[in-house]
């Protein structure tokens, strides 16, 4: 079992799966009739395997990360603090001055005999950015799987139907009827829009809707796109004798788009929200400060140095007075 988990969480294994998926996608895209690849068990198997690998990668890391971020150590030793990327001594400041300087941080404090331990952190969600992105990828893969399974299960999906003016076509239990086709123009003579008016007849129910180039319609789980029209007829008489529609099953499309947005949000959070942490040990003898940040460390440490320099300057001026 440990060997299986180790394999599924391996970066090399994930890269190998991605390479296979890319290869299969290339075959399905560029070879005539290769689109059947996307509905094959082989393609779905590798997509599912990649989803499983992604899920295990997140699960094995998110639990200890949650523990570390949500329950950080507060009472620390001098040795722990000195091992941090930034550590220094400071004097002439109070707790309230430090808290005012670092607004927006969540502060924790505890006391032990004559020592006070303070801890502050900001940007915790930044550490979860990669896992949010992984969750978005899982949603995207689920959308691909759903779209592939349902798309190829429906015989009307991924087909093109040509309907004559005033004619109709039986589609998956309902009828698509072409009422008219219109081309609108700007004053300059350039084409503004192409618009087909259709009626969907499903038993005793009927509804009339418009289909434009950028405005497909969805009915009965199928999406109808404006694919082509009788351009010669439009040029000669201003009317199209026929209009072609592309039919697709976009069952998984909402999941694909949602997953893409979530994945992008996770990437942006991971890149631009640094997790900053500060530990302070207060005692009668000294005040020690240690800090760490997973991103923008140099800027963060310069800010601490600036505050420390201001505190030292304040102490120096007080002694002169």
Can you give a write-up of this model?
The chain folds into 3 domains: 2-65 and 133-150 and 262-269, no CATH class; 74-123 and 275-320, no CATH class; 155-248, Tick-borne Encephalitis virus Glycoprotein, domain 1. Helices cover 45% and strands 29% of the residues. The chain contains 9 helices and 13 strands. The protein has helices at residues 2-8, 11-30, 41-70, 78-82, 95-101, 129-153, 231-237, 253-272, 297-320; strands spanning 86-89, 106-112, 115-122, 159-164, 168-171, 174-185, 191-202, 205-212, 217-219, 222-229, 242-248, 276-282, 287-293. The strands form 3 sheets. The chain has a 5-stranded antiparallel beta sheet with strand order 1-13-12-3-2. The protein has a 4-stranded antiparallel beta sheet with strand order 4-11-10-9, with no helix packed on it. α2 runs antiparallel to α3 and α3 (41-70) runs antiparallel to α6 (129-153). It is elongated. The termini are far apart.
């Amino acid at each position: 079992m440990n060997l299986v988990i180790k394999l599924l969480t391996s970066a090399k294994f994930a890269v190998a799966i991605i390479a296979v998926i890319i290869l299969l996608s290339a075959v399905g895209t560029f070879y005539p009739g290769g689109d059947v690849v996307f509905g094959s068990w082989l393609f779905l198997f590798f997509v599912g395997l990649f989803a499983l690998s992604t899920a295990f990668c997140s699960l094995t890391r998110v639990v200890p990360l949650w523990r570390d971020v949500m329950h950080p150590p507060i009472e620390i030793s001098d040795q722990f603090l000195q091992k941090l990327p930034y550590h220094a001594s400071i004097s002439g400041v109070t707790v309230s001055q430090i808290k005012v300087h670092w607004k927006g941080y969540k502060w924790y404090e505890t006391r032990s005999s004559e020592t006070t331990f303070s801890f502050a952190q900001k940007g915790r969600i930044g550490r979860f950015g990669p896992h949010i992105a992984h969750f978005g990828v899982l949603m995207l893969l689920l959308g691909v799987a759903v779209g592939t399974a349902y798309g190829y299960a429906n015989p009307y999906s991924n087909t093109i139907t040509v309907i004559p003016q005033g004619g109709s076509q039986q589609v998956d239990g309902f009828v698509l009827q072409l009422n008219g086709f219109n081309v609108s123009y700007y004053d300059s003579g350039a084409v503004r829009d192409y618009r087909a008016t259709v009626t969907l007849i499903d038993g005793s129910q009927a509804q009339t809707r418009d289909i434009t180039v950028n405005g497909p319609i969805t009915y009965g789980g199928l999406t109808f796109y404006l694919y082509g029209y009788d351009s010669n007829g439009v040029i000669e008489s201003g009317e199209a004798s026929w209009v072609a529609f592309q039919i697709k099953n976009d069952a998984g499309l909402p999941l694909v788009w949602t997953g893409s947005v979530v994945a992008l949000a996770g990437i942006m959070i991971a890149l631009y929200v640094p997790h900053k942490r500060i530990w302070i040990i207060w005692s009668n003898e000294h005040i020690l400060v240690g800090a760490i940040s997973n991103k923008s460390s140099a800027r963060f440490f310069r800010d601490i140095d600036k505050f420390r320099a201001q505190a030292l300057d304040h102490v120096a001026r007080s002694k002169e007075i």
